[in-house]
Each structure stands twice: as structure tokens, then as C-alpha cells.
What we know:
- This protein is an alpha+beta fold.
- Helix content is 26%, strand content 28%.
- It has 16 helices and 28 strands.
- Strand 5 (78-84) and strand 6 form a beta hairpin.
- Helix 1 (21-32) packs parallel to helix 4, helix 9 (333-352) runs antiparallel to helix 10 (362-387) and helix 10 (362-387) runs antiparallel to helix 11.
Amino acid sequence: MQAVPFVRHSEVDVLIIGAGPAGLMCANALANASVNVRIVDQRIAAGNGDGISPRTIELLQSYGLAERLLKECCQIHLAAFYNPSSTGGIELTNRTLNVTAPSARYPFEATLNQAAIQDIFLDSMTSLGVEVERSTMPTSIELSKDEDELADHTSYPVRVALQRLDESESAQPEEIVHAKFVLGGDGAHSWTRKQFDITMDGEQSDSIWGVMDLVPDTDFPDIRNKCLAQSNHGSLFVIPREKDLIRLYVQLEEKDVIDPVTGRVDKDRMGPDQIFKTAQKALEPFKLNREGEFLWWTIYSVGQRVASKFSINNRVFIAGDACHTHTPKAGQGMNASINDSHNLAWKIAQVVRGWADMSLLSTYESERRKFASELIAFDKTWSTLVCCKPLTGQNSDGVSPEQLLKTFQTDFTSGIGIHYHPSVVVNDTYQELAGGLVLGKRVPPYKFMRAADGRPFELQDLLPSDSLFKLLVFTGESSDPLQQARVESMVADMQKPGSFLNRYATPWSSRFDIITISKGRKDEFNLLRLPALLRPHWSKVFVDDTDPTGNFGGEGYSYFRVGSEGALVAVRPDGYVGAIAPLDRAEVLDAYFASFMKIPA
């Protein structure tokens, strides 16, 4: 009688399927939060994304990962637009800022090959004890139908069968993983999405593009700037990359690449040399040659679609290309994926720790699906414009350079404009107390002086992605006795047993980080006059004054439109403004946190 093979069973807080940008971002964020996480991927190779937006750089900075990106990447500060000239080729019509969002901390786009970007996550995860389990694929997934089990954050209601594809002698080829949560970050053809019959709603884009990475030899003056050339022979994007590399996006004719029988793109009908000839023609009268071989190329026609749902019972989630697909021309692919996971990871961490109710997880879909729908709408508008014939004397219905520029210069492409609507984690009251800290938007950068030593600090660097809510206490004018009395009264309210600070206190670690920002002069300010609650550590007190050299700072209250009466601002762990309250209405924050937080067991 043949022995039944032993199948190993294991438990994990979160199982992530797919080690692309969405999966790696989520695994790294959860590992940072000390959540028990595993990540598996059938493949070894990385994808071919390359653009990182200003907001995503801010986000990476919040995890301590931006420095390496900035060291290795190409920074794109300028964008150039070319249109048909009267002599038949193309000519420069505009050279402008690539990023126009006035509050961008990093006012440029970063480009770097996706493998190098993923290595930044992988190295960070390794330091936290998490490695990608390669050559491993899921073969089945089952979600419990027991409502009590689904509602219990300590249960393991998702059962996933894993199959190891390598021939390792020591490892069992099969394993059953029991997980509290599963994230499918497994790409546009997501296995996870298909197991739950989640549909992708939208349509296939009509335009077909060739893409290629190469080292150019050219006399084109904007080869190191982002460039859109709209010629009479089609459109061409030039994207500068790390070192001497560039990426070209080349508009192709449907008849050259579509198989008439299947109606699908057939890469055998057009190779890289023909794509490159099309690019050369679009760039005339400038010369374009290449040094060496094409490093990578493909032809694509992308569907502009959004998944009908992003989660199943708040236990199985999808992120990145698994839940939204769009053309690469808006440069949002990796950015949307990374921001999906940034939004989800802190919520899972709160629930796994028992700090928040399961209902908090519903805000992942409500916030990120809305964003995805906005992204698809923008992508359709932008793709249509760049594929249209340009405005010329012979084509009066064409797209004008002004139309292109107006659509291009938006906070949306930079990621700065992401705005989450009111929910349990975004209040909608007292916005007038801090008009520059918009409820549902990320905290903009500004430098304040640390009271203890006069050292300037970037406010965003005081808001790391560490799973904690930050309470920004704008105390108002420090030298005003009346305001001082208001601050002391507020502190008395926040020290009551029913206050959120005490109600949700945990013995081993705080859920809140208090940062005090006073209005005053650094040469007169005495942080020891503040109530002890507002100076939990000498490094947590700041003053809105110029830096010691007098070169910058001193207008933070004005910049954030906070009045002399001060304000309380609750910032979510992902750096987005969650609630604002007057100093004498701390109960507003009590109600805010009560809507999703749980009292420790």
C-alpha cells in the first residue's frame, strides 16, 4: 500500500501572492509593523515599469527608502512638447516643468528600472527577516463562509494550497497555509481575482504602441527631458532613464501589428527594428540612432479597466494591476500599485494587532477603487489626446499644444492630488481651522524648528509610516496667557479616563505620537512651560520660526492656515489628514477614533 504524502499545514497573519510592486510594498510595510507575513511568487523576473511620481517618493521616504532611489534614479525636471513644423518635420513648441504641483516635496519624476526599484523593497524586507518564496504558486484558495469566523480578527478563515515548483529535496512540494488575510498582487491576469470571479469592467484602448529601452546616439536636444513629439507620422514619447538609457513609446499603425484573423496584437508582424524606424521618422529632422542592442522591447494594447470589487469579505484583497489596468503613458502603473498597498497595509496592521475593528478594512476598497476610477478617466483623456492628430494648417480639428499642456499639468499625475472622501477614517468637520491641511489629503511638506536645539525638521519626516496615528497639536501663540490657559484646559480634557489617549492606551506601546507645534520665537521659547503631555520627549516639540540662519521657515501657521487659536490635527498612519478639532473640542477626536478603534483586550 502506497504511503499518503505528508502535507504541511501552517498559519500566517497575511499571505501575499505576487512579488511585484504591490506585493513587495505590502510585505515590507507589514514587516515594518511586525505583522507575520509571507510572500510567494511563481516567477523570478521583474516587470518593466520605470516611473516613480513625486508622491510615491514622499511615501518611500516615510519608510526610509527614498535615499537609495534618489541615488540610483534619473530625475526628470523638464518636459518638452514638439509639434509639426511648416517645413515638414517637428519643432519645439513648449518646454516646461515636468511636475507643477506647488506642494511637491520632490518636484520631479524619478525613473529607474523596475528590478532596481524592487531590489530596494527586497533588501529592506531581508533586513526585517522576510524573503520572497520564489517558484511557488497557489493552486487553490477557499474562504470560510462562517460569519462568526469572518468577524473574528484572530481567526484564520482563508485556506490556500501552495505548490513548490523547484525540485528541492528538503522542501515538501505542497503546503496548506491558513491565513487571516490574503493579498493578490499578482498582476493584470491575477489568479486571485479569477478565483473569486471578480470582473474587470472597462474596455480595450484602440491605440497600439511599441516600447523600447536603448542608449541613443542623437542630435535631438530634449533627449534627457520627458518629451512628447506629435508628428505627422504619429506620436512619440521620450523618457530619460538611469545612466545613458532612454525609453521610447512609439505610436504604431493598427494594420502593421494586428493579426486580421484573431484581432490581437501579433509581435511577429513587427520587430524592434521596424518600431525604431517609426520612431526615427517621427523625430525628423533630428537624427536618432542607437548604441548597442535594444535592451528590451514590446508591443502593447492595454485595456482600461477597474475590478468590480477590491476585496472579498475584508479577508481577501487585490491590489495593483490585479484591480486596475491602464496605459503606461500616464506613468501611473507602479505608483498606483505602491499606493494601493500603502493604503491597505496600515489598516491590516491595526486589525491584526486588535487595535481596530474589521470594518476599517472596508475603507481600502472605498478609497482606492475611487482613485482607480479617476485614474482610468484621466488615462482615457490623456491617451486620446496624445493619439490624436496634432493641430496644423491642414488639420484644423487637431489637438493644440495648449490642450495637451493643460491636461498634462495636473496634480493627478504627480500623486499629490489624491483625495480620500469622508469615511470612518476621514472626518468632514472643522476644515476651516487648518485650511492648508486638507481632510483626506496627504500632509504637505513644511520645515519647523525643533524647540530644544533649533534644528530644522521637515514635517513629513515627523510622520513616518510606523502604524501610529500622529496628533499634531498647534498650540497657538506661546506667549499669550489666555492661549496658554486654553492649552492647559485642552490637556486636562485629554487626560480624562474617557479620552481617546487613555481609552485606547496599550501597555506595551502607544497608538499615538504627539507632536507639538507652537507659534513663537526660538530665542524666547521655553518648551518646559508646556504641559508634560505635549512634550513626551524633548524631540517632539517644534516652534514655527525661521531656522537659525534666518533663510527659511517661520510661516507654517500661515501656510497651513491655522489661526492664533490653534488646532488639533489627527494624521493617519499613511500620512493623510483624518480629523481636525478645536483645542476646546477634544471630544471630536474621541468620536473619530471611537468609530473604528477597539479598546485593548
